[in-house]
Amino acid sequence: MTRGTTHQNRLRRMDRWIAATHGPALRRAADPVVVDLGYGAAPWTAVELLRRLRAAEPRTEVVGIEIDPARVAAALPYETDGLRFRHGGFEIPLDENEGEGSRRAVGAADGAVPRRPVLIRAANVLRQYDEAEVAEVWARLRARLAPGGLLVEGTCDEIGRRHVWVALGPEGPRTVTFATRLGSLDRPSDLAERLPKALIHRNVPGEPVHAFLRDFDRAWAAASPYASLGARQRWIAAVRELSADWPLADDPRRWRQGEVTVEWTALAPRS
């Protein structure tokens, strides 16, 4: 069970990115169901996720899943059209008769196909796990995705100013996104403390993520003349310089939001 710290708007940066990059997949999906895994002591993140994703696809449904039955009970009064809460964990139970103790998946007896989420968001869930356990958890969650689905797993600070997440498809990790409130940033490597579990212990010399943050700090320093135009212009200039040496997966439309997304293969641990 996580600590459950759940400030309102804590996951707004991740939500905006999901809506922008995965919105088309939601619109294409016959059953656009989304999971907020480990939503915490209060249901705000699931409530906000539904609102933001319904702006991209009005048919979206969100299921909040928590391992603590007391948290699920506390969230039930917030259920509404398109928003439900379930007790469970990495098995991703989308209906009441699914779960670790269930003998069958929903619909197994009548030939129906069990529902699979087009998106699983797991924010601040794996931080208490060992690094060696991450790959197994990722694989388990990816196996629950619908075709073309996305797993977004990452970590942020308590009020959502700094956030780093990995996006994974059914085939494995695709990208790493760094997102920040630019006015609070001294240098890009400040985001290192929010690296997800798969990368946080790899921020050491000789590892790609360490080299990336080093180069980002250098680009940030070189872009200091843009500071007079604001932190956003300095960030954009730094990211543009960074793109000469690192495979970025986004463009200035996202950079303006205080984001930069890098191909996973460039940052993956060496061993």
From TrEMBL:
Presence of the UniProt keyword Methyltransferase in the record: yes
Domain of life from the UniProt record: Bacteria
Keyword annotations from UniProtKB, A to Z: Methyltransferase, Transferase
Sample GO molecular function, one term: methyltransferase activity
GO biological process per UniProt: methylation
Name of the molecule in the record: Class I SAM-dependent methyltransferase
